[in-house]
Amino acid sequence: MNLACIAIKNRIVTLVLTVVMLVAGLMVFSSMSRLEDPEFTIKDALIVTSYPGASAEEVEQEVTELLEKTVQQLGELDKVVSKSEQGLSTITVTIKEQYNKETLPQVWNKLRQKVSDVQPYLPPGASTPLVMDDYGDVYSIFMVVTGDGYEYHELKRYVDKLQQQLLQVKGVGKITTFGERLEAIYIEFNRDRLAQLGLSPDMITQQLSSKGLVVDGGRAKLGAAYVNVAPTGGFDSVADFESLLISDGAEKQFYLRDIASVKRGYSDPQSAIIRFDGKSGIGLGVSTVSGGNVVDMGEAVLNRLAELEDARPIGIEFGYVSLQSEAVTEAISGFVISLVEAVVIVIAVLLLFMGMRAGMLIGFVLILTIAGSFIFLEPMGVALERISLGALIIALGMLVDNAIVVVDGVLIRMQKGESARNAAPKVVSQSAWPLLAPTLIAILAFAAIGTSNDATGEYCRSLFQVVMVSLLLSWVTAVTVTPLLCVLFLKPPVQNDAHRDPYGGAFYSGYRAFLTLCIRHRYLSSASVTVIFALSLWGFSFVEQSFFPSSTRPQFMVDMWLPQGTHIDKTHENTKEIERYLKQQTHVTHVTSTIGEGGLRFLLTYQPQLSNSSYAQFLVSVDDYTALSELMPQVEQQLSQRYPDALIYTAPFELGTGTVGKIQARLSGEDIGQLRKSAQEVIAIFNEDSNTKAVRTDWRQKVKVVKAILSEEQANLNGISRAMVAQTIRESFEGVTTGVFRDQNLLLPIIVRADEQFQADISNLENIQIWSPIAQKMIPLRQVVESFQTEFEDGIIYRRNRARTITIFADPTEGTANELLARLRPKVEALTLPKGYTLEWGGEFEDASKAEEGLSKTIPVFILAMILLTIIMFNSLKQTLVIWLCVPLAVIGVTAGLLATNQPFGFMALLGFLSLIGMLIKNAIVLVEEINLEQGEGKPLLPAIIDSGVSRLRPVAMAALTTALGMIPLIFDAFFVSMAITIIGGLVFATILTMVVLPILYALIFKAQSN
Q1: Which run of H or of E encompasses 903?
Q2: Across 859-885, average pLDDT
Q3: Of 203, 746, 924, 930, whose CA is between 20 and 30 Å from 273?
Q4: Burial track 910-928 (b if 16+ CB lie within 10 A, e otherwise)
C-alpha cells in the first residue's frame, strides 16, 4: 500500500484534512494549560505530634519511635525522616517513586489509619498526631497583605473577607494563610497576692475550666414535646471573666478582677511572622484546582482584586512574593519566541540549500507537524512549559528529516527527467518503511527518560511525549502530505536533461574525491579517527559535571540561622535590620521575610524550612537576574561580617527537582555524643576547603535547659509531686491552657499565667510560690527544690529510617558541587568511624545518582530495542555493527563543544547525548539503506558505497544542519544550554565523520575491493 498514491489520488480530502489539522492544532495550542516548569509529584507527608514539656530525647523515644515503627509497616514507604525537638515530633514520610498523584490519596488514607491505630499507645499529654498530606501543594499566587496603622484584628478581618471572595473565583482550589496570630484570653495573676490571700493558681484554673465547658442539661417533657434544658453561667464576654467568683475552699470568695488581670490578646510568642518590604502582614497562598490553568486562574484572581479595589481600605496594600501567572506568561512567551526563531532558522537553511519552492514546502510541513502535535499532546495531559516547548525545539531538526528525504528524492528524479507526479509515489514507496524504522529508533533514544519513575523522570517526561508524538506525525506527513505538495508545487528544472548528472557539482565532486581517498587509505583513516576518539575521551575528563543549573528567576534567598534556642523576638529584631540593608542594595526591588519557618511552597522546587524560632528567610526580588552573580556573594559577605554569631548564606532558585544543601554527608549511629564528635570532624574537613560555605548540621547547637533539682524528702512532706512543680513553673512563665472561650465561630484558648513583670526575669524561679496540699497554703518553691542547674542538651534529634542521623551541609562558593565533592569525599571517607556507624552522601550527588539510576534501569532495554530494530530492518549483523560503531564518534563533538563553551555535563546534557544516539543512528540507517539500493541495482560494492555517500550527502547534511542551527535559541536558556551544546557539537562533528567513517567501516567490514 503506497500512502503517497492514496494521498495524491484523494488530493481534496488530503488538503482539507491538512487545513483542519493546522487550524485545530493552533486552536488547541491557544487553549492548552500553561506552566513555568512541568509538574512532578511531591511524595511526602508530615506527621506532627506535640508533646509539651518533653525534651527532644523524650519526644524521640516516647512519640517518634512509636510512630516510625507504625509507618514502617507501609509497603509503599520509601523512607521516613523524623525531627524530634523539645515538645514536638515531626515525621516526614516519603513514598516510593512508582506512586503518582492518582494513587497517592489511597496511600495517605492507609497512613492515616495506621497513625490512628497507634494513637492510644502514645504517652499521656501527647496530642493527636496530625497527618498533613498537602505538604507538597504549590500556591500559584503568594501575596502578603499589609496595613500600616491598622490593628492586627482589623487586618485579619479584611483578609478573612478577601479570602471568601477569592474562593469564589473560577480555577481557585485552596487558599491558605501564613503568619496569622492566634487570639487567646489571658488571665495574669500576681503570685505574691495569691499567697497573701491563701489562693493557688489551681483554684483559678479549676473554676475557669468548668465554666468554659459545653454542658448538656438534658431534655424535659413539656406537653407533647421535648424541650432542651440549657443552664447558663458560661462566658459571653471578657467582662464575664472578671466577674468570676473564686473560692479559697473555706468561706472567702474573690472576684477574679481583684486577684488577676483579664485581657484578650494574641499568642505570644508568635510561631511564624511574615513581612513585605519592612511591613508586617498576613501571607495569602492561592492554589489552582487540579488540572487547572495557572495563567487563567491568576488573571481571574487579579481581575477580581481589581473589582474589589474600591472596597479596599486606604493603607491596606498587597505585596506579591510570587505571581506564577505572570512568570508563566513571560516564560511561555520567551519559549514561543525561541520556537519561532528556531523554525525561522530551519526554514531559512532549507531555502538556502533546497531552493525556494522545496524550502517553503518543507517549512510548511514542519509547521503542520508542530501544530498537529498539539492535538495529540493535550489529551495526554502535556502542558505548555519549559520541557515540552524545549522538546519541540530539540525535535525541529528531526521533524524535517523525513520530509527532506522525500523532497530530495523527488528533486533528484525530476532532474533526471521524471515528472513530480511519477516521482513522488516512487520515492515514498522506496523510502517510507526505511524512514519509519529510524524514526522509531530516534523515539526509543528518548524513551528512557519517559519511563523513569523517579522525580527527575517525572519532571522531564514531557520531553519524551513531545518527541514521540511529533516524530511519528512527521513520518505520517512525510509520506502523505509531502508527496502531494511536491506534485502541486515543485516545478521541473529549466534544463530538463535526463543525462545530466545531478551530483556533478563542485560540492559533490569534492566530497566524492575525499571519500574515495579515505577509503583507499582506509586503515590510516580508521587509525586517525581512533586517535581523535581517544583524545576526546581524555578531554572529557576535563569537562565539569553537574546536575541541574540554577534558575534565571530574578529572585534569590538569604537564610539566617541564629544560635539554636534564640527567641523569635530576637530573630525578628535582626530581620528588621537586615531588611533595611537589603532594600538599600542596587537592583533590589522587594524583600519578603519569613521568621520562624519557611514560607508557603510557591514553587515546586522550593522546600520550606520547618518551624524553628532561630530561623529567618529573605526572598529578595531584583530587576535583573544577571545581577545575582555579583549581588549574592556581596550580601552574604557583608551580612556575615555584621552578624558574626549568625550563619547567613545566599542561594539562587534551582531548576529541576531542587535540593537543600548541594553537599550533604549523613552520619548514622546510636550514641548522640559520638555522632556529634564525628560530625565535628567532617565539619573541620569541609571548612578546610576555601570553596565551601554555609557549613552546618541539622542538629544545630545544644540548647540551655534550667533543671529544678527536686528534694524528694521535702516534696513528700508537703505533698508536692514532680508534675505539680512542672505545672507551677509553666503557669509562672509560659502559661497553662485551662479551657476555651467561644466567640461566634472562634474558639479562643484561656491561658493562665503570671504577670508580665514576673515572666521577664528567670531569676524569679526561686521566688515562685507553690501550693502545698498538706500545709493548705502557698510555700516558696525553694523549700522543695534543692537547686536550679543550667545544663545543655540536644534541642533537635534527627532520625533517618529509624536510625539517629546527623547531616552536615555545605555549598560551593563557586564552581560545581561535583568538583567540591570530588575534593571533600576522599578526606571524609578516610575518617575512622566506630563500628555500627555509617556514612552516606546526599544532596546533589544523591539526586543525580537516583536520576541516573532511574535511567540505567531502562537505557539498556531501549538500546537493545534499537539494536534489534536495526537488525530486523537490515537482516544483517554486519550492517548493524557498522551503524552502531558510528555512535561513539558523537563523543568527539560533545567534548569539543562543552570544553569550548565551558559548559558542564549535567543531567540535561546526558539526555542530549541519548537523543544524539537516535539522530546518528537515523542518519546512518539512511546511508546504509542507500548502499543496499545501489547494490540492488547491480553496482559493485565500492562504487555503491561511494555513490550512496554522494546521494545521501545533502539530506543527511541538511538534517544535521537544521537540527544544529535550530538549537541556537536554546543556547541562551540556562536550563537547556548544556543539552543544546551537546547536540550541536555532537551532531555536527559526528555527521561529518559519519559521512566519511561509515563508508570506511563498511568497506573494511565487507572487504570492498579498491580496484
Answers
A1: none
A2: 90
A3: 746
A4: bbbbbbbbbbbbbbbbbbb
Whether the CA torsion 373, 378, 382, 386 is positive or negative: it is: positive
Look at residues 78, 766, 182, 763 and name the one whose alpha carbon lies nearest to residue 453: 78
Task: Return d(Cα 920, Cα 889) in angstroms, integer.
Answer: 9
Cα separations in angstroms, 897 against 753, 900, 911, 915, 979: 70, 5, 16, 16, 11
**How many CA atoms are closer than 13 Å to the CA of 571, on its beta-carbon side?**
32
Determine if the peptide bond prior to 888 is cis (ω within 30°): no
Segments making up each domain of the chain, as ranges: 1-31+355-499, 43-135, 183-266+703-717+726-793, 503-549+844-1011
* Residue 32 host element (H or E): none
Amino acid identity at 614: S
Strand partners, 944: none
Residue 516 has pLDDT above 70, yes or no: yes
Cβ-based neighbour number of residue 425 at 10 Å: 20
Residue 1010 is predicted with a pLDDT of 64
Assigned CATH topology for domain 1-31+355-499: Multidrug efflux transporter AcrB transmembrane fold (1.20.1640)
How does the average pLDDT of the chain come out, rounded?
A: 86
Q: Under CATH, which number does the domain 503-549+844-1011 receive?
A: 1.20.1640.10
Cα(791)–Cα(797) distance, integer angstroms:
17
Give residue-wise pLDDT tens across range 398-452. 788 888 888 888 888 888 888 888 888 888 888 888 888 888 988 888 888 878 7
Residues 745-795 have pLDDT tens digits of 777 888 888 877 777 677 777 778 888 888 888 888 888 888 888 889 999
For the CA atoms of 235, 241, 243, 248, the dihedral, rounded to the nearest 10 degrees, stands at: 110
Secondary structure in 3-state letters for 749-807: EEEEEECHHHHCCHHHHHHCEEEECCCCEEEEHHHCEEEEEEEEECCEEEEECCEEEEE
What is the signed CA dihedral for 121, 127, 133, 139, rounded to 10 degrees? Answer: -170
Distance of CA 808 to the CA centre of its chain: 22
Distance CA 306, CA 772 (A): 64
Contact 972, 906 (CB under 8 A): no
CATH architecture for the domain at 183-266+703-717+726-793? 2-Layer Sandwich (3.30)
Q: Outline where 451-591 has alpha helix (H).
A: 455-459, 461-479, 481-489, 506-520, 522-540, 568-583
- 10 Å CB burial of residue 77 (0-12, 13-18, 19+) is middle
Level-2 CATH architecture, domain 43-135? 2-Layer Sandwich (3.30)
pLDDT per position as a tens digit, 221-275: 666 676 666 555 567 777 777 777 777 666 778 887 888 888 888 877 788 999 9
Does pLDDT of 959 surpass 80? no
90 bridge partner residues: 48, 83
The residues with which 174 forms a beta bridge, in sequence order, are 287
What is the longest distance spanned by two Cα atoms in the chain?
129
Is pTM, for the whole model, over 0.90? no
